Every structure is written in structure tokens, then in C-alpha cells.
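Write out the 3D structure for:
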Amino acid sequence: MERKPFILANWKMNKTVDESVDFVEEFLPMVADEVEVEVALAPSFVSLAAVSRALAGSAVGLAAQNMHWEEGGAFTGEVSPVMLRDAGCRYVILGHSERRQFFGEGDGEVSRKVQAALREGITPVVCVGETLGERDYGKTFDTVGVQIHGGLADVVLESGREIVLAYEPVWAIGTGKTASPEEAQEVQSFARTQLADLFGGEVAGSVRILYGGSVKPENIGALMAMDDIDGALVGGASLEPESFAGIIKSVIGET
């Protein structure tokens, strides 16, 4: 089953509003003709509106890095899916390992957020992945399986195209270490079997599964050659326009 490659930039807590807009203005001409790849940028909350305006008329989508599951209310410091949709977001990153590690998010919260995003027509990018300790003790599949089943509990999918899954081994995020293409494929193939358990094989075959963890222009080609790697969630290498454009061009075999 054909799945269109998807490359998503996660800027994390980087870039002011002006820096974000400058990036977009420099980046868009570099990828204007790359229609074979779906691309999105996830700036900080304060930059969403400005980046949305800067992306207007382009094929590049807008993503948020997190959200609350309620539509509104007394949740100081939070942002709702309604607000994200109004700001122009097509996607939202949920369950990132940094949210789990530093802010105590669990699979139950991820599930509620996924359901809320789907209700508002926003595509959730659901992150899963093991720590180095879990990998060393042979717990990779246990961890990823629990995160998938817990984070997608009570979620209803019709086609599989409503969500994106992102496998990010925690030990490879921002460390310069990257899972080998074969290591990533092994886990992502397992992840697809877990999706099939939940939603059936046809739906699971339509879900795009991204790899994240020190992705660069130099390694994206080998990763994308794997059967179950459908794109990348890119952190550090997405902060410079030339580097991020290089990843996109490498996906379609350009240099």
C-alpha cells in the first residue's frame, strides 16, 4: 500500500517569531517543486500564527508541538485543539518523549489528546519509543507495544490516514546516535503489527510511521529505503533551512 512520504520539523523550544518567519521565507523557495513529499513545520506556540501566514499559499503544512484535550476552560498555560485549528494547524505532535520525561505525560493523556485532535480534524502525530535502558534490557517491543495500545486506546480510525505514528528511540534524540535502518525497520514493522491488532491490517497498512532520532540529510535515504519507514520527525537538523531542505531532497533522490 502506497504511503506518501512525510517529513515533519519539530523546532522544540527554539526560534523567536521573527526567526521562524525568516526560516520560512528562506526555506520555501528551496522546496517549491517537491510535491512528492509532504512537509510540515512545528514551531513554538507563540510563532504559530506568524508561521501560518508565512506558509499561506504553499504546500507546507503547520503543526503544533502539543495541546490539551479540552476545547477550552480553566487550564492555565494550555492550548486547545480548537485554538490550533483556528491558527491553521493540520497536525499536532503528541506523546513526545520529552513530554513524557519532563512533564509526566502518560498513555492515558495521549489517548485523550489523540481523540480530541481527531474531533477537530487535526492529524495527531503520536510518538512512541524506548529509552537506552529499556533497549539494553530487551524491553523495546514491550515499551513500544504498551505505548501504542495505551496511546491509541478508544481511538476509532476508518482509513488509517487520520493519524501518523512516529517511532523515536529516546537514546537517539539529540545525541547524534541513530538507530541503524535495520534496527528502525524492525521496531517500525512491529509497530505496524500492533496497529493491525487495534484497527485491522488494511487500516494499519495506511498509517504512516515516521522515524525520529538524529535524522540528517546523510542518513535519511537509507532509512527511507526500509519498508515501514514512511518519513521522519526531524529535530536539530530542521533548524536550518538548507539542512532541512537537504533531507527533503534526499528523500526523493535529489542532491
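The two ends are 27 Å apart (CA to CA).
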